[in-house]
Amino acid sequence: MNALTAGIDENVRRLLHDLFSPARWPRGKTLARMLLEGLDDVAGATGDESSRAVSRAEQFAAMGRRVARDFESHPLRNQFIQLLQDERELLDEQLPGLVGYLYSSVVNNFKGEIAEILARPGIRRFGDRLGVPVTFVSGWDVAEPQLKLHRVVWAKGADGLLVTGGARLGIAAVIEIKSYRENPEKMAGQVRKHVARLRRGLRIAGRELASSDYDFVLPDGSRVAAADASADVEVASLRIRTPSAPLMKATISDGLAAVAEIPFTKAELSKAAFAMTEWFLARLGPVVFHLPGDPHPGAVVTRWPDDSLEHVGRWATREAFFHMSTRLEYYKHRADSPRTRRALSGTYWLYNAMSFGYEHARGDRMVWAEELMPPPPEVEAGIEAARDHFRKGSFDEARATLAEMRTKSPNADQLRNIAWLEGMTAYRDVQFEKAQRSFPGASGQRSDIWNHRDLLMEARLAARTGRLDEATAKLERTLALGASILGFAGECEGVRALVCSALGDREGLARASAAAKAHRVEITRRIDERRAAGRADPEVEWQGLDMGKLDLASAAAAAGDEDDAEWWIRSMASRTDSWIARYVERDPLLAPILPRIPDWLAAHKS
User: Fold this and answer.
1) Alpha helix locations (H) across 130-214?
2) What's the rounded Cα separation, in Å, for the pair 490 and 516?
3) For a disulfide at 215, which of 143, 223, 389, 473, Cβ 3.0-4.6 Å?
4) Contact residues for 183 (Cβ-Cβ < 8 A; gap 6+)
5) Average pLDDT for residues 507-518, to the nearest whole number?
6) Where do the H-state alpha helices sit in 103-157?
7) Rounded to an integer, what distance in angstroms lies between the CA atom of residue 225 and that of residue 238?
8) What is the pLDDT of residues 438-476, one digit of tens each?
9) What are phi and psi of 257, to 5 degrees?
10) CA 535/CA 517 separation, integer angstroms
């Protein structure tokens, strides 16, 4: 809790302006202004800007703490933290509950908080009608005993009360606030239920009161004991809801049973709540993650070491929602139900809103960045076209496109992408010397998620071109990075096998092959174990694993162990890309085993 709410009393004016930027939302500036006015009203702030800023920050911090309290005290809190650390450790059937928890504990709470702040001017105006001094008590501090139970169970009460002080507490009005457009008569029915419950007792600001300890203050100023069940009690009430269309200011009807409308629609409140939710979840970054070399209990090392931990919280949350949507899509096929469908739709909304803004969000599918982006500049478009050719195994087309892009004055990042594709295209086309000359090598940056793979590719190309000392050194550098994703260890053993084969080290080659086979068995075991338990598959670098199998097969064939070479080729049964069969046919080291695998080649070429 402390880490989650630390530093929450920042410059509220600047924060709200950033959250509701007019550049993304024309009425965002109006919302930020009205929220500031509402916070000032909550605090009773007067005087100059500096004194109001302090009171405003205190009220905003209190709002953040209320949401954090609800979030932190929920029994699913630890599951949500696990979701951010590694969603694969959760069961499929746990995911719908987590989505519901996030909406109830964070999104809906922020909707309610924002609606309450926007309602404050109307509440104050309504209180002035009552003719007696009253104080507003937020629904966060109100609980009522549930009816028709043999024991007292305290439940959430009205969204607010107007109370009188003095020697004896008086309830002068009941407030209902909805962050959507509810029917006023239905809201009146809810008010009557609250009054009925308040005849039995009240918990206010943590203090439990019997019904004999307070009165109802009626519109004529008289008092009726709440415990007097025979009295005809008509407590003043204010029902607050959203309008059907945006308003410039809040409205309120006449009378002591009034209906008020805040200036913002249900959709606008949802937009604001999602922005606040993203801000809130970003603050989980320091709770869930730590920087390399700076561990603390319960945290895992960040996957984005060059970013602040708050930014890490934002990236991790988006990534978690992305993976959740994929898992829920598959889970829906096995356990289709309204609950699962609601969870999937809610996850789409969360991911889309946090990634692209609420104005672009939807609940029926994922939104992709390219849908919202203008056409890419010529060089970027050309690089993407070349990448598409590369993925499909159309290497001549990829090379031609990349050569053309070099004539378009690409920048440094574009030149690196061009060189990377040229090197990888040459590798897949079994042109190892050319690949070694073209490949730009690893970036060496901690934030580069492909750094370990690119460094291993340098080692592979060095082994393939006879630079064995360089290959060994770069393999050791790769292993020192400590990358633990399944499949990568098998790929490393493939490069080690190439070096051992070239050096005539048959024992080393046998050890590398055995280690890679054990790693493959471990991958299968983990997948089977997790599927049986209803968990998602572990992360596996399948493409790298296939490249490692090619290396192991080539190394074995070059050493004369054709049985082992054939075994590794046939182990690539279901996840091979289209270029692999062509690679096998053209790799000179694999020539001795081609007569043994015509069926495999025919199947994978088709």
Assistant:
1) 184-198
2) 5
3) 223
4) none
5) 97
6) 108-129
7) 21
8) 999 999 886 777 899 999 999 999 999 999 999 999 999
9) -130, 75
10) 24
